Amino acid sequence: MSFFSSMDISSSGLTAQRLRMDIISQNIANADTTRTEEGTPYRRKAVQFEEKQKSFSDVLNNKMKSMIGNSGDDTAGEDVGAGVRVSKIVEDQSAFKKIYDPGNPDADAEGYVNMPNVNVIEEMVNMISASRTYEANVTAMNTSKSMALKALEIGR
User: Fold this and answer.
1) Is the pLDDT assigned to residue 84 strictly greater than 80?
2) pLDDT (tens digit, 9 = 90+) per residue, 114-146?
3) Which terminal CB of the chain, N or C, has fewer other CB atoms within 10 Å?
4) d(Cα 127, Cα 19) in Å, to the nearest integer?
């Protein structure tokens, strides 16, 4: 694993958590949206992550180099993943909340309005979690950078 691999992994985490924060912000902004383009209340969205794998060509090239060169290099770290990526954004299919508001234009015949399935408190907890994870990735990236600078100072 090279120096730049750790930077790539941290940057993939930064990108993924930024998207997660964007989706959480969208959920909070639409917590009271009773009608979307489809005519239904807003449905909460969630981000699903998966491990980003190295491409087939990267793995093949590394294995070919180790077979040809076979200079006793330890290639155990070559199978390490390449970070994280967003696999998909899904809509939460839980039931909408019903509130009694007969004056609302979106109320049904009994006076109840379907409200989005967004819990603002839960979204704020998710936002704090995403923010802390983002900060952890920044710290990891800064640590890698600091280690590289210290290694360069050795040559002086």
Assistant:
1) yes
2) 999 999 999 999 999 999 999 999 999 999 899
3) C
4) 11
What percent of the chain clears pLDDT 90, i.e. is strictly above it? 65
- For Cα atoms 18, 23, 29, give the angle at the middle one, nearest 5 degrees: 125
Query: 109 is written with which tokens?
Result: 């015949």
pLDDT at position 76, please? 47
What's the CA gap between 105 and 113, in Å, rounded? Answer: 9
CA angle 104, 110, 115 (to 5 degrees): 50
In the predicted model, what is the mean pLDDT of residues 70-83? 58
DSSP-derived secondary structure for 15-34: HHHHHHHHHHHHHHHTTT--
Instruction: Pinpoint the alpha helices (H) of the chain.
Output: 3-29, 56-69, 120-154
Alpha-helix residue ranges (DSSP H) falling in 54-119: 56-69
- Rounded Cα–Cα distance for residues 140 and 138 (Å): 5
